Amino acid sequence: MSETAIAKLFMHGRSQAVRLPKEFRMPGAEVKVSRIGDKVILEPIETRPFDAKNFWAAIDSLTGGEFPDVGDDDLHPNLDDDVSLD
């Protein structure tokens, strides 16, 4: 059985937005939007559980999998001891 209701349209900055009635609320912060003919369809986006293995694989792909060799001297900049604020 399909439900029908009236929703309000309004402008949010330069974007058009729709205020959904309470019975049509969806979980999450984003929805998938598609158009079929003259209809606009909003669908909830399934949230996938966090996958640490994929996360670190993505990080490794950015760095080539190798971190640079960093020594203690690289972590502390050489500063002049004679700093004058005059």
TrEMBL record:
Xref: Gene3D superfamilies: 2.10.260.10
Ranges for region Disordered: 67-86
InterPro entries reported in the protein's UniProt record: SpoVT-AbrB_dom, SpoVT-AbrB_sf, VapB_TA_antitoxins
Stored SMART domains: SpoVT_AbrB
Classification via Pfam families: MazE_antitoxin
Any GO MF annotation of the entry: DNA binding
Family (UniProt): Belongs to the VapB family.
The protein's name: AbrB family transcriptional regulator
Species this protein is from: Rhodoblastus sphagnicola
